[in-house]
Amino acid sequence: MTGPSGTGRARVVSSYDVAVIGGGAGGLAAARAGARxxxxxxxxxxxxxxxxxxFTGCVPSKALIEAAAKGVSFADAAAxxxxxxxxxxxxxxxxxxxxxxxxxxxxxxxxSGARVLCVDGRSIRAKAxxxxxxxxxxxxxxxxxxxxxxxxxxxxxxxxxxxxxIAILGGGAIGxxxxxxxxxxxxxxxxxxxxxxxxxxxxxxxxxxxAGVFAAEGIGVHLGTSVERVEQATSGGEIRLERSDGxxxxxxALLVAVGRHPATSGLDAEAGGVELDDRGFVRTDRFLAxxxxxxxxxxxxxxxxxxxxxxxxxxxLAVRNxxxxxxxxxxxxxxxxxxxxxxxxxEVARVGLTEAQAVEAAGRVAFVPMSDVDRAVTAERTExxxxxxxxxxxxxxxxxxxxxxxxTIVAPRAGxxxxxxxxxxxxxxxTGRLAQTVHAYPTWSTxxxxxxxxxxxxxxxxxxxxxxxxxxx
Length: 473
Prior knowledge:
- It is a single chain.
- The protein is an alpha/beta fold.
- It folds into three domains: 11-50 and 92-137 and 261-329, FAD/NAD(P)-binding domain, CATH 3.50.50.60; 145-258, FAD/NAD(P)-binding domain (3-Layer(bba) Sandwich), CATH 3.50.50; 340-466, Enolase-like, domain 1 (2-Layer Sandwich), CATH 3.30.390.
- It contains 13 helices and 22 strands.
- Strands 1, 2, 3, 4, 5, 6 and 16 form a seven-stranded mixed beta sheet that branches. A six-stranded antiparallel beta sheet has the order 17-18-21-20-19-22.
């Protein structure tokens, strides 16, 4: 979306109600929201609409993961992945957007003034601007890394065959998802994570389950050490990773999946009065407004939740807030009930607080192992669990089980199950409503009812306990 700063004075071509910078999930949502409100809207993008999610993120990775789980060949998986990407991209290309009332301009963009954008020498003025330039893969400053051919999420899906062996830097969501996928395609996989466990942002129990699954599938996991140096082991041969504990790992391919950095280089944010933080992310308030009047930012570039569905929510909300009449028409962006999922097998899904975070909120924790869930037993998939967290309400305190504060679910269909909890949180539902809701038998979601019941009675030999207290599981 952004490129090198241009020089000279740009010619003013037109003015808009809303100008959106970036054609990823957040930008598409913002542009469509503007058009639906009858606003003259323009979206500026330097590439195909759809962004990282469609071409190098969610869509290709999930297509690859699904194919790996089905045991198809890598060649067939790659072909299917390209079909899926094209199919989804066709629903959000420039022609579709134009038919929906959004003008699309292709080119590099930068700020040249307050709510004024320069696009390849053209000038665009807008009453409101939404920055949605997204993020790029972060590349750590490891000596020698720049001298070897490493992969990121932007290049890994270009592979035409699986590497014989692959080392993955990063044990977060992207690293774990692709580690399991490549392992199932026959690659020898080694995951290197500097923290003490995989998925370090998730509940410790989730990390334990995933580590066990990886061990059973032959995926090597190296925790608690950093990579000190990277080098080509032999000319055109394997890549060697030298670790801080003195050991080394060699692999044919190297995937770097250690996080993201904001795509703000070349945006000339200062010219637009837009402040960036020390990492380069756009500073926003709770309404997604930047330091510049009439300029908002959404999605990864804000450094908030780096998730496609969060960007989509932010895009629509930013346009609402930018065009609201009076402060009471604005709504804050609330992350408390937005779920996220790591699409390994089993899936790891979370919404709201972890147990550690719930201690200060006087939370209580219910825990149901999948071995207690009949659907999991019938499927012979008992390696997961449901952890449901509830806490006191203002005034009413623990009445009705209090309010739901969060949940972590590890199960083959955790990504679908978590939305019942997200709905409970979004609607401020009493925890008891989950326990009262009749669930079809036998289903995975029955585990949520079993967990909610623990806030009222002993079930399966367990009762809800205070967050942070010893578990009886």
